[in-house]
Amino acid sequence: MTLDRFYPIFDDVDWLHRMLPLGVKLVQLRIKDQPGQIVADQVAQARDLCREHGTTLIVNDYWQAAIDTGCDWVHLGQEDLDDADIAAIRRAGIKLGISTHDRGELDRALALEPDYVALGPVYPTKLKQMKWHRQGLEKVSEWKGLIGDLPLVAIGGMSVERAAGAFEAGADIVSVVTDITWNDDPENRVRDWLKATR
Ligand SMILES: Cc1ncc(COP(=O)(O)OP(=O)(O)O)c(N)n1
Ligand SMILES: Cc1nc(C(=O)O)sc1CCOP(=O)(O)O
Ligand SMILES: [Mg+2]
């Protein structure tokens, strides 16, 4: 199964209601700082909505909620891996994407046989404070050389204008948050992304 090249990330299922009808085929639900029941409700709603639209849903962080609701994918960062029950995730038949930022993290990720690897921040991100400032397109190419056929997701400071460069450097998929969610017209921005990545 091939993942779409455009991988937007949203923090609430309301965004999915707005964006999936436009043609988004791969999406991450990245909920932060919400009570467990809200997370469970949001994940279940997102699962149903994505099924309706033929969209692949990737649940960030909340791997147990993904198992409990019968989701197909989770995304975990390095800190998430410290607590996650990878065997339980795999037993549930769930596919796994893992964040990486340096060689040590990449080695750790590859040992878990992930279904994609994400590298970031390719460009500086305004979304969150990070230890890494800017990995650059050279590192995208280096990562692709190291992981071969495994899908590579480029994330961090990505925009419609920067997407082509990331693909040329070797990314298979480009993931994005604020270029859409902080845009004055998020729907129109998603349409631009769809045009640029189809
Ligand atoms: C596609 C993608 N890449 C990287 C991340 C970051 O994951 P993580 O390091 O666990 O940080 P949080 O997103 O959980 O704050 C991601 N979510 N998606
Ligand atoms: C959630 C996340 N993870 C990153 C990583 O490098 O692991 S960068 C990032 C933020 C992406 O948001 P924006 O597209 O607004 O820069
Ligand atoms: Mg995380």
UniProtKB/TrEMBL annotation:
Broad enzyme group: transferase
Pfam families registered for this protein in UniProt: TMP-TENI
Top-rank taxon, per record: Bacteria
Catalytic activity annotation: 4-methyl-5-(2-phosphooxyethyl)-thiazole + 4-amino-2-methyl-5-(diphosphooxymethyl)pyrimidine + H(+) = thiamine phosphate + diphosphate; 2-(2-carboxy-4-methylthiazol-5-yl)ethyl phosphate + 4-amino-2-methyl-5-(diphosphooxymethyl)pyrimidine + 2 H(+) = thiamine phosphate + CO2 + diphosphate; 2-[(2R,5Z)-2-carboxy-4-methylthiazol-5(2H)-ylidene]ethyl phosphate + 4-amino-2-methyl-5-(diphosphooxymethyl)pyrimidine + 2 H(+) = thiamine phosphate + CO2 + diphosphate
Thiamine phosphate synthase/TenI domain: residues covered: 12-180
Cross-referenced Gene3D superfamilies: Aldolase class I
Family: Belongs to the thiamine-phosphate synthase family.
Pathway annotation from the record: Cofactor biosynthesis; thiamine diphosphate biosynthesis; thiamine phosphate from 4-amino-2-methyl-5-diphosphomethylpyrimidine and 4-methyl-5-(2-phosphoethyl)-thiazole: step 1/1
One Gene Ontology molecular-function label: thiamine-phosphate diphosphorylase activity
Species, as recorded: Roseovarius pacificus
Matches recorded under PANTHER family: THIAMINE-PHOSPHATE PYROPHOSPHORYLASE (PTHR20857), THIAMINE-PHOSPHATE SYNTHASE (PTHR20857:SF15)
Keywords: Magnesium, Metal-binding, Thiamine biosynthesis, Transferase
Name of the featured protein: Thiamine-phosphate synthase
